[in-house]
Amino acid sequence: MTGRAVDRHGHHRGIPGAAAGPGVPRRGTPAWRSLATGARLGWAIESNWTDPFLFAVYAVARPVGAALVLVAIVWIVGGGGRPDYVGFLVVGSACWTFVGGGLSGLVWAVLDDRERYRMLKYVVVSTVALLPFLVGRAAGQLFTAVAGFLITLLVGVLFLGVQIDLAAIDWRLFVPSMAVGLVAIVALGLTVAGLCLTTRRESWSYPEAIAGGLYLLSGAIFPPDLLPAALQPVALALPTTWWLEGVRRALLGLPTPGVLAGFDDTIVLIALCVSTAVLTLGSVAIFRAFERVARERGLIDQTTGS
């Protein structure tokens, strides 16, 4: 396809949005507009086009159930637990709702559009930029994860005695830690989404499997010091470890006991930013590579039965 057609007078004319030749790029939609389009579509799908009130009830009921399970673990299984560990566990569990939403949102955007709605091929051939469109699609799940984050913290304060004082929160540490951490989560989701562009079966389980591994390595439920010695450097190289540490320090006012306590707040933020920058650059490159392979093998417009 050369991007040119012949009118009734025999003159060549360009096809809007198509390339004029093999070496001429197609006019594309700006990245911010692709992102906004994906966000609107992702929110509509996430809410299932239902009544906003009904969706709000569902969005609140799900994290409430998870928080009640957390209460049962601490009080019934753990016998109440130590106050410092309870705060450590509650904040880690609250933050982890973003990891599940970010990974699942990006991966399911690929799989839903390819396998269920069969629209991914039309997105690819349109002027919409695929990468920001998929990031926008994941925004719906990240937005609903905010409810899970806040509700888990509220349950921890009301029922588990977690000491979080709004007046004492270090907002200068909390805001950049949360913002950069969300970038890291999206970057990680891009890598998995790119992989799913080239896989055929069982891709739906990838987000849960990867999130489960990170759940152990990143210090969500216990400090990295308790990991085997060979895995501790891996934990310290992950941006999710420094993200959780920054949020915990900002909310609880205390560092995590062990190796992380030896770093001040500035080092925590620097480590988070550096590891996130490396992950983001690598994730974009990996996604582009997987996208190119998927295009060459014709996997964009195939349903795989997964």
What is the topological layout?
Layout: E1 4-6, E2 12-14, H1 31-46, H2 52-77, H3 83-116, H4 120-125, H5 130-159, H6 171-198, H7 206-217, H8 232-237, H9 239-252, H10 265-297
Antiparallel strand pairs: 1-2
3D structure, described in words:
Mean pLDDT is 82; it is low at 1-26. Helix 3 (83-116) runs parallel beside helix 6. The radius of gyration is 22 Å and the shape is globular. The chain has helices at residues 31-46, 52-77, 83-116, 120-125, 130-159, 171-198, 206-217, 232-237, 239-252, 265-297, and strands spanning 4-6, 12-14. It has 10 helices and 2 strands. It has one domain. A hairpin with a 5-residue loop joins strand 1 (4-6) and strand 2. A two-stranded antiparallel ribbon has the order 1-2. It is mainly α and 306 residues long.
